[in-house]
Write a structure and sequence with these properties.
146 residues; alpha+beta; Aminopeptidase; 4 helices; 5 strands; globular
Length: 146
């Protein structure tokens, strides 16, 4: 398996993997609005501060991490907005390998931390804990629907 840095030029492959994972269980996200999907992918992959990685196995994109670089007082961070492994490849170690490779790559860039959010009631929660990620109990997510 191989880690590659991706860009907006890889949008079609990114969209295919992203929707293949997140429109299924346990997420069931409705990405049927193709314009909204294009805008979302451009938000995450098409900015000057975007940082997107792909995990390839024998030329096939099987993993995706989309986020951005954030300069913070404790050091520069990689904020991951979306991370996924192709559904039929989950549970076989690809995700752990992918995270390890991302950590190495961002450390080489001088970044100090990865920050991400996930739901407590999905398998990703235990996956991150298993891989050494800890809950930041002092942070509380807020939202206001208007």
């Amino acid at each position: 398996m191989e880690l590659k840095r991706l860009s907006i030029d890889d949008k079609e492959a990114i969209k295919e993997l992203f929707t293949g994972v997140f429109t299924g269980e346990p997420w069931n996200d409705d990405w049927s609005d193709s314009k909204q999907l294009d805008l979302y992918i451009e938000d995450l992959c098409g900015q000057g501060y975007s940082l997107t990685y792909g995990l390839y196995d024998e030329g096939e994109l099987i993993g995706l991490s989309m986020g951005y670089i954030k300069h913070w007082y404790t050091g520069t961070e990689y904020i991951i907005n979306e991370l996924c492994i192709k559904t039929d490849r989950q549970g076989g170690g690809a995700g752990t390998f992918f995270l390890t490779q991302i950590e190495k790559a961002i450390k080489e860039m001088g970044l100090k931390q990865i920050f991400l959010l996930t739901d407590r009631d999905v398998p990703a929660y235990n996956f991150y804990k298993k891989n050494g990620y800890v809950e930041v109990s002092s942070l509380v997510p807020f939202a206001k629907y208007i």
